[in-house]
Design a protein that fits this description.
Elements: H1 7-19, H2 23-26, E1 32-37, H3 42-48, E2 57-60, H4 63-66, E3 78-83, H5 84-89, H6 94-112, H7 117-121
Parallel strand pairs: 1-3
Antiparallel strand pairs: 2-3
Helix pairs in contact: 1-6
Length: 124
């Protein structure tokens, strides 16, 4: 059932998914980077209490709600990490892959804005 694409294509799909977020939210994304990795490390999976092969994406950082009024230019960016192999493993077609990347990006952007998993589940 796994549908695989090369990393540049996966990154392009992630960029397109990010652009699909409503502009009222997109314009408030600051100091945020989106990264693609093959799979999460044990520590990242443990930090959210899931098995390593089940983690599709992860938000790391302080997020919009945690940002102070004065941001220093040297501040490390918040990040959304997409785990390519885990996402591909649950997709059986190009269309499913595009949709799962979009769902994962939107979910992690929700964490950026301070929403919990329970709050995000109300919108899925």
């Amino acid at each position: 059932m796994s549908y695989h694409v090369e990393r540049p294509e996966f990154e392009h799909l992630a960029e397109e998914a990010l652009k699909s977020i409503p502009k009222k939210y997109l314009r408030n994304l600051r100091n945020l980077t989106v990264l693609v990795e093959d799979q999460p490390g044990d520590e990242d999976a443990e930090s959210v209490g899931v098995q390593k092969d089940q983690l599709l994406g992860l938000f790391k950082g302080t997020g919009y709600a945690g940002a102070g009024f004065f941001e220093t230019p040297a501040a490390l960016p918040d990040s959304i990490i997409l785990y390519q192999k885990n996402i591909e493993a649950i997709c059986g077609s190009a269309q499913e892959l595009v949709e799962e990347i979009r769902i994962t990006i939107v979910h992690e952007v929700g964490h950026y804005f301070g929403l919990s998993d329970d709050e995000l589940a109300q919108y899925e």
